[in-house]
Write a structure and sequence with these properties.
single chain, 76 residues, alpha+beta, two-stranded antiparallel sheet, globular
Length: 76
């Protein structure tokens, strides 16, 4: 689960999170909690969010929040 203020441009994901999602795609959902100005929040689920393994030595990757949210769905 990743929490971000509404309007943030990126989300940082660790190498281990990406590797787990690629190894167990049916078990992994990236949950993004978007914190709104009015002390409310919105939850987005992204299934199979990543396509490839990070390069060797990479510890985390910044992803474009708008692109991830475009692939998101409401929790079910």
């Amino acid at each position: 689960m990743k929490g971000r203020v509404s309007g943030a441009s990126t989300i940082t994901v660790t190498r281990n999170e990406i590797l787990y999602s690629l190894n167990k795609p049916e078990d992994y959902i990236l949950a993004i909690v978007e914190f709104l100005e009015s002390d409310e929040h919105r939850v987005h689920y992204v299934r199979e969010p990543f396509r490839r393994e990070p390069d060797f030595g990479v510890t985390s990757v910044n992803y474009d929040m708008a692109e991830l949210l475009a692939k998101a769905e409401a929790p079910r």
